[in-house]
Amino acid sequence: MKIYTKTGDKGQTSLIGGRVFKDDVRVEAYGTIDEANSFVGKAVTELDAEKFADILADLEAIQHELFDAGGDLANVSSRREWKLDTKAVEQLEKRIDELMEEAPELERFILPGGSPAAATLHIARTVTRRAERQTVALAKLDAELPGTPQQYLNRLSDYLFACARVVNARQNISDVEYIRSAKVFHTNKKSKDE
Description:
Layout: E1 12-15, E2 18-21, H1 25-45, H2 53-73, H3 86-102, H4 116-141, H5 148-170
Antiparallel strand pairs: 1-2
């Protein structure tokens, strides 16, 4: 089986139920989701299976959910069925809360980086934010598009931030604070007087 079809040689690509130019906002959105998914996959290759078993399970589920989100954005058929479920958003929220409990206290912005896996997760986070912005632009043009992909991408970027911090913490690598940052995050720890 040949993987090239030559059908896109004139600048168009197939969707589920139609064709558009490859620079269409819809293609940009689901293409950026694919890019984020690739960075998530790269992070998987950089994580120790024993130390990060819980995170690796998260990331595998996320990769499947990103395919679901991309498929939903690529669907322009007259009878649309959506794959991405709000349960995926709820699961991300649960995991964000758990990871933020494990991560060291945070008051200021941090520089993306640390271990190779954490740096890759930060790249995935920023690409996810771009995918979210493009999904917002697409939603303005497609009133039938469900809000779930946009919500999912919003939560996913938060998850990837928390995940990168925990990956560094489990390897005893400190996050580097942005030196000109004001205190922008509130700590969860209670003061000694309470």
